[in-house]
Amino acid sequence: MFSYLKNKGNLEKLTHRQMTRISLEINFVNHIIPSGGAVGVSYLAYELKRHGVSISRSTIAQVVKHVLMFASFIMLLIISVIVLAIDQQVGRYVFVSTAILTVLAIAATALVIYLFSDNKRLQKLSDRIRRIINSTVNFVTRGKKPKLIDKKTIDNFFEEMHHDYLAIKRDKKTLYSPFVWSILANVLDVALLWIAFWSFGVAVNPAVLFIAFGVSSIAGVVTVTPGGAGVYEAVMIAFLASAGVPQETAIAGTLLARVILLAGTIIFGYTFYQRTINSYGKPTN
């Protein structure tokens, strides 16, 4: 995400330390508040606005991040299935899981491209979002605040995002380095799981972990619990157990990896989040 923004000429003075701090804050917000990542999107916009990045560009940067993460993950997933096929470890559950993840990733990417490729479609989307938000706010406040977002503001927001999409389409090289980073991010996510199981003396096939990670992540996204807690672990354990990993090892390795991840996210993320709030105040919207 930061790589994409730097390719667009933003954040030239932002250091690696500052980028790491902002990333930890966003992870904290996404894991603590059950919003499916929506709060993280607005919080990042709040953070980057202080560094001269418009809200629309920070939003499109996050869209780019998710699309590239999906694309690179599917590439790694296909490689994992090929490896399992060579080892003759491909069962029906592997094919079904891979097919579902691939379809979801392609569908999500196609939907994003479909929406952003036409400004009229984006304008219709912005009108619908504006009406839903304003109606909800009006209902919650019992008419005291009938309108939260005006048409001109949200139309300009989506128009800027459309222009950024067209710029990406004209110069696809801006996605090269972000794509490499997305591959590394996916590999390191699965590496944490592999190390957790290895610490118990069990070397789980990384190809199996890639598929388990993908299935669990999708399940975690659609749940209302913070960071998908509870559902993510249950799906991960069930999948690994069905893949031949001893149940007690599946439970121990999954919980160890999740505890380390969440503990680090909460401890460091909360510290930086509070420092930012104390220094600059809470986001106003």
Briefly say what this structure is.
The chain has 285 residues and is an all-alpha fold. It is 77% helix and 0% strand. It has one domain.
Helix percentage range:
over 70%
Distance between the termini: 22 Å
Number of strands: 0
Q: List the secondary-structure elements in sequence, H or E.
A: HHHHHHHHHHH
Q: Please summarize the sheet with the most strands.
A: none
Q: Beta-strand percentage?
A: under 5%
Overall, the morphology is globular
Query: C-alpha Rg, in Å?
Result: 20 Å
Structural class: mainly alpha
Please tell me the overall pLDDT.
81
Low-confidence stretches: none
Tally of individual domains: 1
**DSSP helical segment count:** 11
Q: What report would you give on this structure?
A:
- With 285 residues, the chain is mostly helical.
- The chain has one domain (2-280).
- Helix content is 77%, strand content 0%.
- The chain contains 11 helices and no strands.
- It has helices at residues 2-7, 16-32, 38-49, 55-86, 92-116, 119-140, 151-170, 176-198, 206-221, 231-242, 247-280.
- The radius of gyration is 20 Å and the shape is globular.
- The two termini are 22 Å apart.
Descriptive labels:
single chain, 285 residues, mainly alpha, 11 helices, 77% helix
How does the SSE layout of this entry go?
Layout: H1 2-7, H2 16-32, H3 38-49, H4 55-86, H5 92-116, H6 119-140, H7 151-170, H8 176-198, H9 206-221, H10 231-242, H11 247-280
